Amino acid sequence: MSQKLYIKNMVCDRCIEAVKEELNKNNVKIASIKLGEAEFSGDLTGEARNQLSKSLKDRGFELLEDKNSQIIESIKGLIIKQIHHKNEPLHTNYSTYLEKEIGKDYNSLSGLFSSVEGVTIERFIILQKLEKIKELLIYDEFNLSQIANRLGYSSVQHLSNQFKKNTGMTPSEFKKMQSPDRKTLDRIG
Q1: % of residues, the chain, pLDDT over 90
Q2: What are phi and psi of 169, to 5 degrees?
Q3: For residue 74, which of 103, 114, 41, 42 has the smallest C-alpha distance?
Q4: Alpha-carbon distance 133 to 176, whole Å?
Q5: Could you state, in order of their start, the residue ranges of all structural domains in the chain?
Q6: Residue of 150, 131, 153, 130 lying closest to 142 (CA atoms)
Q7: Distance CA 134, CA 79 (A)
Q8: pLDDT at 10 over 60
Q9: C-alpha span between 148 and 134 (Å, rounded)
Q10: Per-residue three-class SS string for the chain
């Protein structure tokens, strides 16, 4: 019989590899692993679970026991995966996508997310898209039209308006101000 672990702070493929490494070190038989969760076979109780929790925490992750926390991490993981790790836009709206993937009514998901995170799911999506836009602008591989299409914007104008509203500058202004010695995400702060 397989069980699931829900893990906070898994946001990229390197995170998946780091968690996989910790699960292997702790003799957890992994069936599958994806952003925010790992499925495994066997039993993980008591001391073994505590040791795994500690080793994950040492790597910057957190084992989630609370069901609401698990749902919130699932929402975040699905959004991050869609925006940062897919090369084409979502072909439905996010509310339908999240309902289908999580199996719960969007209004309840939205209410839970807002009450715990202090921002709406919609705002979280916008913030993730803005970070992806910045990344794509800096790497200079795509023009604004391609970025707008990739992230599901209805037009370049919509993307530009949202970018300016949230950052105070146009995408072109942002691109011009970037220097080659920018910090990596883990060094910001």
Answers
A1: 68
A2: -145, 160
A3: 103
A4: 14
A5: 2-65, 70-177
A6: 150
A7: 17
A8: yes
A9: 12
A10: CEEEEEEECCCCHHHHHHHHHHHHHCCCEEEEEECCEEEEECCCCHHHHHHHHHHHHHCCCEEECCHHHHHHHHHHHHHHHHHHHCCCCCCCCHHHHHHHHHCCCHHHHHHHHHHHHCCCHHHHHHHHHHHHHHHHHHHCCCCHHHHHHHCCCCCHHHHHHHHHHHHCCCHHHHHHHCCCCCCCHHHCC
Q: What CATH class does 2-65 carry?
A: alpha beta
Please tell me the CATH superfamily of domain 70-177, with its number. Answer: Homeodomain-like (1.10.10.60)
Backbone dihedral region for residue 79 (phi beyond 0: left; psi -120 to 50: alpha; all else: beta): alpha
Tens of pLDDT, residue by residue over 33-56, are 998 889 998 888 888 889 999 999
Lowest-confidence pick of 43-47, 100-104, 121-125: 43-47
Q: Are 39 and 33 in contact (CB under 8 A)?
A: yes
Chain-centroid distance of CA 165 in Å reads 23
Instruction: Report if pTM > 0.90.
Output: no
Which tokens belong to 160? Answer: 């530009």
